[in-house]
Structures are given as C-alpha cells and as structure tokens.
Write a structure and sequence with these properties.
Length: about 650
C-alpha cells in the first residue's frame, strides 16, 4: 500500500549552502540527540511547509535559513514543497513553491526551487495531490464558514505527537488546545473517517449555503413583520394624536391599513388656518377694558375719598351743633335771674337799682345771640351737606356697577383669549403632527411587501438535501468508523506498557467531541482521560489512538498522509534518569524495567510499519539503545551535545 511519506527535509542558508535530512518511506526513522541540537524543529518545519498561518520555527534556525523545503513521495509520485523564511520577528512568508511529478528533486540552492505560488494556491495544490476533495469546493468565490472547511491544515492533527500532546492528560490531538484550530479539526474528523465523501461534502457546503440563505430570508421576513407591527402602532398613535389636536380624523383608519394610509395622507396635507392679527401698536380689547377699569377704579378712589371727607365734615357739624346747643342752654340760665330779656338793672339781693352787672349781662346776651346764629348756620348747611353725600354715594354706586361690568367683560375676554390660545397651540401641535405623519409616510412608502417565494424554495431544497445528506444519513457511518478506530486503539493499548487498573480496559473513541473513554467490562466501570494518572498510561493511550487512527486511514484510503512524528517517546521516563538532566543523549540498555518498557514502544512501531500499510514513523528522541540492532539501524542521525553535527551547523551565518 502506498501513502504519502516524507523522503527529505531541506534547510537553505543565506550563503548558498543546504542541509538535507533523508528519511526512509514506510519505515521507522529515528533522530537522537541532546537538547539544543534542533531536532524538535523538524515538526515546526513540516507544519510551516504545510501552510501554517505563522512560522513557529525556533529563532536560532529561522535566523540562519532563507527557506525550508520537504520532499514527499507516494509510490511513483513525488512532490517538493518549500516556503521562504523572512528576516525579523515575523519570520512568516506567504511565498511558497510546489513542484510535483514522477521525478522531483530538492535543489542545492533555494533560488532553483520550482513552482512559485501563494500560500493559498500551494495549499490547494497539495490538497488535490493528497485527495482532499474539499479543495475543489473551496475555489468558489463565496466565502464559506471556516469551521466547516476541510483542508490540508487539519491533517497535521493526526500526524504530530508534539511535546504538548504525547503524554498530555487533556489534549488528545495536536492543535486541539488552540481554539481556532480545534473547531476545524473537529469538523474534519467525519470526512477523514470516511463518514462523508466528496459528494456529501459538496452537499454539506450547499446545505450550509442554504441555511445561510434561509437565515437571511427569515431575518427579512421578521424585519417585514416588525415593520408592519411598527406601522400599525405608530400610525394608530399618530391618528390618535391628530384627533387630540382637533384634526379631522375618521373612524375608517382603524379598520384597514389602506384606509389608514389614506387618512394619514390627508392629515399630512393638512394646513392650519391663518389667525387674524391686530395692527401693529393697536391695543387688544382686553387691554382697553383693563385701561377703562383702571380709570373707573381711580374715579372710585376719588369719590370714596370725597365721601369720607363729607362724612367727616357732617360729623364735625353735628358735634358743633351739639356743642352750641349745650352752650346756649347754659346761657339761657340768665332768664331765671330777670324778668325777661329787658329786665331792670337792680341788685339781686336788695332789689335796689344798680348799674354794676349790666356789662356782664350784655356779654352773656351777646354770646347767646352768637351761639344762636351759629346754630342757625349749622342747621342751614346740614341739608346741603347731606345732599352732597347722597350724590357722592350715587356716583360711587354707579362707578361700582361700571366696574362690575368691566370685570365681566374682562373675564369674557380672558376666556376668549384662553380659547384662542388653546386653538393656536392645537394648531401648532397639529402642524407638527402633520409634519411627522408626512415623514412617516415618506419612509413607510419605501417598504416592499415580503415575497416568501425564495424562502419557500430554499426550505424545500434544504429539506431534500438534509433527507439525503443530513446528519442522520452519516451517523451510522461515523459510528462504524469510531468502532473500528476504538477496536484498533484497544488492541494496541493492551500491548503497550500500562499501569493498573487499565491493562484490560477498552478504548472508546468519540469523534464528535473528540474524546476517549476507557471502559473496564469486568469492573463495569468507565474512566475519563484525566483518570489515567500515570504519564506512561497517557503515552500509551496517545500512541494507541494515533496508530489506531492510521490503521483506519490506511484501510479507508483516507487523504491523511501516512506520517506519524513523535517528539521524545521517552519523555515519561526521563525524570527517573537521576544522573542526567535531559540535556544530553542517553544511552540505554535493556537491563532496567523502565528501559524495557520504553523499548516496548519501539518494538511496536517496528512491527506496525511492517504491516506494509504505507505508514512512516519519525521519532525525535533523547534515548539511544546501544544494544538493540533494530533501533540502531533505524537511527538516521545522531547529534551529540559535544559533537559538531546538529540540525543547522553552527557556522551558518545569522541575518
């Protein structure tokens, strides 16, 4: 059986030199070496040539190379893929080359690499070479959802067992710990497991497009419904507001949308009547009434003041009259001492005639006469004063009635003014409402009725495709593939070093998550990945699952390349090497149990490649088994810390 393997990896320097690593197809290839010799960069190099979005090649190497390349073979077909490495911090270049045919060789100079193209074009070309059917579908100008795209990039998840994966208690495949990559890997598994084929894949892409179209049409339909509801509520509110302003609104608008539109159009064309205006400087009727009222009030004040003065004068006259009357009565006492007014002057004791009191009598008489005259004056003026008071009272009553009449006229004018003001305010409100109605109609008129024909057509086509290619149609195939992978992984797992209680456990693989569960039938107990505990158990599980998948890939002719690369299988065992800090290559013998357990993994790998299923295994390792001939024969390169050989010669110049 033939699958895509790696034959060579090349690193091109800036000064025209090249470093080539050669591997054997369909066999186990081991590179041993100390830390810092660059062996782990092989995974990043292959990943970079497989079109990664960024360059993860370590800086020491990236600074000393201008390009990297890999040569892949599949039977008689060969392919050379290369990619530039830029100077500086970014390192990432989108310039690649792809050359394929029956005879392709890695040149000695990077300038001689053939087939220059963009990263996207090279990836598409490699996908076609590998048989990834989605490559043709992705040439469409329509941008598809990246999570549903099957591409070359997802194959690396099943090729690399990097240091973050090989004995991880949480990460099942390379790239699943990166959110963006994880969604792509999960979406690709059904395709690589053969649960969906190219025709199904094409239908899935079409289903996805139809779902997007239906989603768009549903949004349009909901928007139209929302617009209709908004029209109903807004138009009803505008009509009610117009009615509150006194505008002519009929009952018809509340019956149908068309009658509402007609009524709204009439209201939009409504014009307010122009109110009458006074000449400039002319007082208003209310101002004139208030002016008259002020004049009457001033007149009333003057009349009341005169009436008070007249009343005061009348009171004083009455007091004077009373005082005069009292004085007259006192002076009338003289009549008791004489026979009358013309009495004989004589002594009041002896009655002899005398002239002595005559002067006093005359004075009394004169005073009495004066008082009598004053009384007559007061009595003569009193009717005049009373008549004057009556006239003043009548004038006050007349002015009061006039004031009351003016008050009534003022109230009427104020009421009329308020009514006019309300009408004016309503007119202004009506004008504003009319303008808003016009604006509302202008925008509502642009609304096109929703046409459900396209939505119904999309839904009908989607139902047909889902009936034939939907999840139900592929569920059985996916379950069967999961079962076969689980069987393969379980068989391998039980051959590898495993710490109890998992020696007889069955691996159950779930491709949808993806996840694994270990099930012990005898104990009727299942275990999650995090329950394994021992690093050795995790290593065995990852090795078993990856090889189990590749057995299935080979049987199903999956487009995943037949390449498995492990970064230090001995990783769980190195902490037990007390005399070694992990920075140097370790020579081991089979004397210890741990060494025997570690060698068990390599024995399995040798046997697995002998199944002739086109699987190539590349191991980047610290351990070196000096007494195992198969192991030594599989070692392609041995880079000691104290030696000169390493991935990139130290004498290569840096940029």
């Amino acid at each position: 059986m033939s699958r895509w393997n790696i034959e060579e990896i090349a690193y091109f320097s800036h000064d025209g030199r090249v470093r080539k690593l050669k591997f054997k197809a369909g066999e186990v290839n081991i590179i041993t070496g100390a830390s810092g010799t660059g062996k782990s960069a092989i995974i990043q190099t292959i990943d970079y040539c497989f079109g990664s979005s960024s360059c993860e090649i370590p800086v020491f190497i990236a600074d000393r190379v201008s390009a990297v390349a890999i040569k892949m073979v599949n039977g008689e077909t060969q392919a050379v893929i290369s990619r530039r490495v830029l100077p500086g911090r970014s390192k990432t270049s989108h310039q690649m080359t792809l050359d394929y045919g029956s005879s392709c060789e890695l040149p000695e100079r990077s300038e001689d690499l053939n087939g220059t193209a963009s990263r996207g074009d090279v990836r598409s070309g490699m996908e076609r070479l590998f048989g990834i059917s989605d490559a043709n579908l992705q040439s469409s100008s329509e941008k598809e959802d990246e999570a549903s795209r099957i591409s070359l990039r997802q194959t690396t998840a099943f090729m690399f067992a990097s240091k973050g994966v090989i004995d991880s208690d949480r990460v099942l495949f390379h790239g699943l710990d990166i959110t963006k990559s994880a969604s792509h890997i999960i979406a690709s598994l059904p395709y690589f497991l053969g649960a969906i084929d190219a025709r199904t894949l094409q239908a899935r892409v079409r289903i996805h497009g139809l779902q997007k179209g239906i989603e768009t049409e549903e949004k349009r339909r909901l928007q139209h419904q929302k617009d209709d509801d908004s029209f109903d509520s807004v138009s009803a509110a505008l009509l009610q507001e117009a009615r509150a302003c006194g505008m002519p609104v009929q009952e018809a608008p509340f019956l149908s949308k068309q009658s509402r539109l007609e009524a709204l159009q009439l209201l939009a064309d409504w014009k307010a009547e122009t109110p009458l205006t006074l000449l400039e400087g002319e007082p208003t009727p209310l101002a004139r009434v208030l002016d008259e009222k002020q004049q009457v009030a001033n007149r009333l004040i003057a009349l009341r003041r005169e009436l008070r003065d007249a009343s005061e004068t009348s009171r004083l006259s009455e007091e004077v009259e009373a005082g005069v009357e009292r004085q007259r009565k006192k002076l009338q006492a003289i009549e008791f001492f004489s026979g009358g007014v013309h009495f004989t002057e004589k002594c009041p004791v002896c009655s002899s005639p005398t002239n002595e009191p005559s002067a006093r009598q005359r004075a009394i008489k004169q005073a009495f006469a004066a008082l009598t005259q004053e009384r007559q004056v007061v009595r003569r003026n009193k009717p005049v004063l009373d008549a004057f008071k009556v006239r003043l009272s009548e004038s006050i009553n007349t002015s009061t009635r006039e004031m009351q009449s003016l008050d009534m006229r003022a109230r009427e004018l104020i009421a009329a003014d308020n009514i006019a003001r309300v009408k004016e305010e309503n007119s202004h409100k009506a004008s504003r409402v009319s303008g808003r109605i016009g604006f509302f109609l202008e925008h509502s008129a642009k609304q096109v009725p929703f046409d459900s024909t396209r939505l119904e057509k999309y839904q009908e086509t989607l139902d047909e495709l889902e009936a034939e290619f939907g999840a139900d149609a592929t569920e059985d195939l996916l379950r069967a593939a999961e079962s076969l992978v689980s069987d393969n992984a379980t068989e391998i797992f039980q051959k590898l070093p495993v710490v109890e209680p998992f020696e007889k456990s069955r691996i159950v693989f779930n491709a949808k998550k993806p996840a694994v569960t270990l099930f012990d039938a005898s104990a009727r107990r299942s275990y999650k990945l995090t329950d394994l505990g021992s690093d050795q158990n995790y290593l065995s599980l990852h090795v078993a699952l990856l090889f189990g998948l590749h057995r299935f890939f080979a049987a199903a002719s999956s487009p995943v390349p037949g390449i498995l690369i492990f970064d230090q299988v001995s990783r769980p065992y190195f902490p037990e090497q007390k005399d070694n800090d992990g920075s140097e290559e370790v020579e081991l013998s089979v004397e210890s149990s741990d060494t025997a357990s570690l060698l068990n993994y390599f024995d399995f790998m040798f046997k697995e490649t002998q199944r002739d299923e086109g699987l190539q295994v590349i191991v980047l390792e610290h351990a070196y088994f000096s007494d195992d001939e198969r192991y030594k024969a599989a070692v392609r390169y041995r880079w000691r810390k104290d030696g000169k050989e390493r991935l990139i010669p130290s004498e290569w110049p840096a940029r």
